[in-house]
Amino acid sequence: MSALLRSSANLLRTSVAPQASQAATKRFASTQNRVYYEHTFPFDYSKRSFALKYALFCTTGFSIPFIAATYQIWKSGAGAAPQ
């Protein structure tokens, strides 16, 4: 078997494989029998309390580096004392 024939056989094998894979993907990508969930959170919540808790969580997380930097500057004596 010549080298050219072997390389063309390998090329033919690799070009056929993706088509079989695509057929399987199309078969399992059906839009029928889909389940739509009414609730996206795994817990019940009040929108107002969730919004307040989420805002508090984000504000706290965002402010920690600024508080730490202010404290470190104050501790080193390089800045004015916080009032």
TrEMBL record:
| UniProt xrefs under Pfam families | COX7C
Q: How is the protein disposed in the membrane?
A: Single-pass membrane protein
Q: Is Isomerase found in the keyword set?
A: no
UniProt entry tagged with the keyword Membrane: yes
- Tell me which positions the record assigns to the signal sequence: none
Annotated TM spans: 54-74
Q: Which Gene3D superfamilies match?
A: Cytochrome c oxidase subunit VIIc
- Please name the pathway: Energy metabolism; oxidative phosphorylation
What SUPFAM superfamilies does this protein map onto?
Answer: Mitochondrial cytochrome c oxidase subunit VIIc (aka VIIIa) (SSF81427)
GO biological process terms, semicolon-separated: mitochondrial electron transport, cytochrome c to oxygen
Localization (cell): Mitochondrion inner membrane
Q: Which GO terms describe its cellular component?
A: mitochondrial inner membrane; respiratory chain complex IV
Q: Which UniProt keywords apply?
A: Membrane, Mitochondrion, Mitochondrion inner membrane, Transit peptide, Transmembrane, Transmembrane helix
Protein function: Component of the cytochrome c oxidase, the last enzyme in the mitochondrial electron transport chain which drives oxidative phosphorylation. The respiratory chain contains 3 multisubunit complexes succinate dehydrogenase (complex II, CII), ubiquinol-cytochrome c oxidoreductase (cytochrome b-c1 complex, complex III, CIII) and cytochrome c oxidase (complex IV, CIV), that cooperate to transfer electrons derived from NADH and succinate to molecular oxygen, creating an electrochemical gradient over the inner membrane that drives transmembrane transport and the ATP synthase.
Note the subunit structure.
Component of the cytochrome c oxidase (complex IV, CIV), a multisubunit enzyme composed of a catalytic core of 3 subunits and several supernumerary subunits. The complex exists as a monomer or a dimer and forms supercomplexes (SCs) in the inner mitochondrial membrane with ubiquinol-cytochrome c oxidoreductase (cytochrome b-c1 complex, complex III, CIII).
By sequence similarity, the record places it as follows: Belongs to the cytochrome c oxidase VIIc family.
Q: What is this protein called?
A: Cytochrome c oxidase subunit 8, mitochondrial
Could you read off the lineage of the organism from its UniProt record?
Eukaryota, Fungi, Dikarya, Basidiomycota, Agaricomycotina
